Amino acid sequence: MTKQISLLGCGWLGLPLAKTLIENGFSVKGSTTSVHKLELLQEKGIQPYLIALYENTIEGDITGFLKDSEVLVIDIPPGLRKDTSISFVDRIKTLVTQIEKSEIKKVLFVSSTSVYEDVEIFSTPLEVTEETPTNPETESGKQLVEVEQLLLGNPHFQTIILRFGGLIGEDRHPIKYLAGKENVENPDGPINFIHQEDCIGIITAIINFLLDSARSDNKQRNKMLKKVQHDNIIFNAVAPQHPTREEYYHKKAKNMNLPLPIFVQNSMSKGKIISSAKIEKLLGYTFKKEI
C-alpha cells in the first residue's frame, strides 16, 4: 500500500521535495496559497490543495488535505519580514486543532537555526548543538521557538523539528545580492548554509525512518532507529563546511565572475558554528553538496 504524506507548503523547497517523495514511492498531498499553482502541482503528480492559514481560521479543505496521511510536513515561512503584525504562532495553533482531529501521527516542522543567537567571536566561534539553549534575536526566530514548543508539547502526535541553516541552491545564492557592495559587516562570522538538495535528502531520510519498521542486526542502530521513529526529536541541519563570510563570499564572487563585496575590517564579528553531528549519527546521513 502506498504511504501518503501531506506537505503544507509547496514552495522553493516543498515542490522539489514533493517530486522526490513521489519518486521514492510516496503519495503526496501538497498545498499552495496560489490558485495559479494548482495546475502545476497536478502536473507534478501532487494532489493539489488550496490552503491558507490565518490566526483564527483556515481557508480551504484542510480536512481533506490531512485525511489518510500519517505524516504532515510543515514547510511554510513565518512571513514576518513582510508583515511584522502576523502571529505565526496563532496560525499554527489553528492548524494544530485540525491535526488533532485527523489521522496524523507524526509532524515534521521545518524551522531555522535563527533560533540560536549570534555571539561575539574572540578566537574560536561557539559550536552550537541541539542542546544549546535557544535565544533568538529576531521576531521571526522568537515565534519559531514558540511554535516548536507548541508542537513538541502536544501529546497527540510525534514531533520532529528540523532547524535548517541558510538555504542555497542552483537558483538561489546570497552572493548575487552582496556582489560589489561596500561596508559589508561581519567578515569573520562563520557560514552555516545548506544546499536545497541536502534539505530534500534529509527530509526524505527522516520520513523513511518514521515509516519504516525495518530492523538491523546492530542493537545500537536499532535503538537509534526507535528514537527517530517514536520520540520527539530536534535536528540541526547545515553543511559541515564553515568558512568565514569574507572567505566564502570572495570565493563565490570569483567563481561567478561577480565583483567582490568589500567587508568592514578591524571590527568585531559575531556568529556561531552549527553542528549537524546528531543528524549524521542518528540517520547515518552524509551531506552531498558542498556549499
Describe the structure in brief:
The protein is α/β, with parallel strands linked by helices and 291 residues long.
Could you please describe the fold and organization of this structure?
There is one protein chain. The chain is an alpha/beta fold. 34% of the residues lie in helices and 19% in strands. The chain contains ten helices and 15 strands. The protein has a seven-stranded parallel beta sheet, sandwiched between helices. The protein has a two-stranded antiparallel sheet with strand order 4-5. Strands 8-14 form a two-stranded antiparallel sheet. Helix 4 (88-101) runs parallel beside helix 5 (139-152). The protein starts with a strand and ends in an 8-residue tail after the last helix.
Radius of gyration: 20 Å
The SSE order reads EHEHEEEHEHEEEHEEHEHHEHEEH
What is the makeup of the main sheet?
A: 7 strands, parallel
- Total helices: the number is 10
Percentage of residues in strands: 15-25%
Structural class by SSE content: alpha/beta
The number of distinct β-strands equals 15
**Helix percent band:** 25-40%
Stretches where pLDDT is under 50 for at least 5 consecutive residues are none
Shape verdict = globular
Q: How much is the average pLDDT?
A: 92
Strand order of the largest sheet: 3-2-1-6-7-10-13
The termini sit apart by: 38 Å
Keywords:
single chain; alpha/beta; two-stranded antiparallel ribbon; 10 helices; globular
Task: Describe how the helices and strands are arranged.
Layout (H helix, E strand, L loop, with lengths): L3 E5 L5 H10 L3 E6 L5 H6 L3 E4 L1 E2 L4 E2 L2 H5 L4 E4 L13 H14 L4 E7 L6 E2 L6 E2 L10 H14 L5 E7 L1 E3 L6 H4 L14 E3 H16 L7 H12 L2 E5 L7 H11 L14 E2 L1 E2 L2 H7 L8
Helix pairs in contact: 1-7, 4-5, 7-8
